[in-house]
Amino acid sequence: MKTLGKYSIGMGDRFGHQGSAQLKAVMDAESKGIQITPVWNKSNREHSIIGTVPGDVRTEADAVTKKAGYKKAYFVDADHINFDTVDKFIESSDFFTIDVASYIGMAAGKEEIEEFLTSVNKYTGKIKIPNSSLAFSTPKSLVKKVAEKYLFAAIKAWEIYRKIEKVKGNGNFVTEVSMDEVAQPQTPVELFFILKMLASENIPLQTIAPKFSGRFNKGVDYAGDVEKFQSEFETDLLIIDYAIHEFGLPGNLKMSIHSGSDKFAIYPVIGSLIRKYDKGIHLKTAGTTWLEEVIGLAESGGEGLAFAKDIYIKSLGKIDELTAPYSDVIDINVSSLPSKATVAKWNSDEFAESLRHDPANGRYNPNMRQLVHVAYKLAAMKKDEYFRLLDANEKIISRCVYENIYNRHICRLFDIA
Q: Comparing C-alpha atoms, which of 272, 270, 209 is closest to residue 240?
């Protein structure tokens, strides 16, 4: 069976130019004793906007690993696929993030619900997590509500999984189920019974992506109660461990954090808890590669800076169009966005420092950063020019991408000095 390593990171590369810099960050972590499995991910939405196909991600991953002489496992993730979008990803992907969020709340059949309730009778009333003080009341009425809310989604995950398995064969890909793009976090009891549902469907789950409290906005830091997140994360770690032993799930099943990148405030919490319990983690996404490309272009000056300014200035006139698909994962204070006239006068440092995620720098503007994060569509409309500039300024951009992933993400999460 294809097995995901204990530690893995999902890296997006929307325009397919930064795989080498991303891989170098992973390889340098290994030199410090941290073995990380690289996973290149790209969603159907991103492919549609940019005009690429899933096979392009496989081509890039294979090329950069071969060039670097990288012999360890790596994966290509069909990110946030569902029954309708999975087909085009099957041939080139070997990691599938099955997104069931849209199916949550749809009721399964009465017979299916009753069958599930019978199968979990031993857990009805109370469950206690071994080697911890955690215990949860689980009256039948509560378990039934959980089944009514999540069982249909688990059945749909099974349908999607079987669709992939029919083509790729058993054991030839990694399966993740994601439930993060919903309004409310799953409770520990819900997560426990969700894992039972997935186990009952014989899905060899290697990663699970639950929803946590707080805001996971794109490209900026976590907004929420860090102590509450810590409690949720620790409890979920223990629930997953218990479910592995109770339900026969794969022993390497681990948490997947769909971070939207740059959640620096919670990295120390995640890092300390996975070390405390000796657990793995899948971090998706690590690094905002598109933003680092824009920062690198700004730092290069000349045509690169002009292109970066043009992207931002045009985005001001298209805010509603650009932000609509991401409305649940961005919070932009429009009044705090720098004006067209202001940005037009900026030099390279002023632009780059406003965009780079460094809260210690007084120029850093998280509102501008979020807007540019979703403005990649504008670069896609001028791909020939954009690719020419990426190639012309490869050294500067690669440095930005590498330093971002290695220094800001990997070192913080894994406590590398």
A: 209
